[in-house]
Design goal:
185 residues, alpha+beta, Peroxidase, domain 1, 2 domains, 4-stranded mixed sheet, 8 helices, 59% helix, membrane, ATP synthesis
Length: 185
């Protein structure tokens, strides 16, 4: 957590540079690619965290890995982090960038918990419902949890709507527990 503030500062600087060139959306896509790539590769995580590997070598690996996939602003970030010996913060910076980009674009993150993965058409219906409820678009993050049995749990900001089957079962259970029903013998 001690890297949260510096990561936010770097992310704000990158967003300001991206706004100046009009490429903030492209840089956001690049940052999401970086987060996904780091999350999917234990070797890359280990390499970025390793104090034994030189910053120049880390920068070469990142440039080779993301050479034609990222914008020049992101490549400049690789160089800056290498010079300041802060390559370890790349994942945090990329995550912070996405957060402040969403705020800048008035986008929210809607977390939708379902028993199965969302299809595109259901995702579109959820997006329409979010716009109707909040007035803003939201990027949808699908969390799969088979324990809810069916239905969904939608969380946008501080609002939560629970339409899961497990929630309905729990309500029914509480109703039976609270009633003083005495069967006729």
């Amino acid at each position: 957590m001690k890297e949260a503030r510096p990561a936010l500062r770097y992310a704000k600087a990158v967003l300001n540079l991206a706004k100046d060139t009009g490429s903030e959306s492209l840089v956001n896509d690049n940052m999401k690619l970086i987060v996904d790539t780091i999350a999917g590769s234990d070797d890359l995580k280990t390499m970025l965290k390793s104090p034994v590997i030189k910053a120049a070598d880390k920068r070469k690996v990142l440039n080779a890995l993301f050479d034609d996939k990222v914008d020049n602003i992101v490549k400049g970030l690789f160089n800056l982090l290498g010079e300041n010996k802060r390559m370890l913060m790349l994942d945090s910076i990329a995550r912070q960038y996405s957060i402040i980009y969403d705020y800048y674009k008035s986008m929210q993150v809607a977390k939708v918990t379902t028993a199965v993965t969302l299809t595109k058409e259901i995702e579109d219906k959820i997006q329409a419902k979010i716009v109707a409820l909040t007035g803003n678009n939201a990027s949808i993050e699908n969390i799969v949890n088979p324990d809810i049995l069916g239905g969904f749990i939608l969380r946008v900001g501080d609002m939560q709507y629970d339409a899961s089957i497990s929630n309905q079962f729990n309500k029914l259970r509480r109703e039976f527990d609270n009633s003083h029903y005495i069967p006729k013998i």
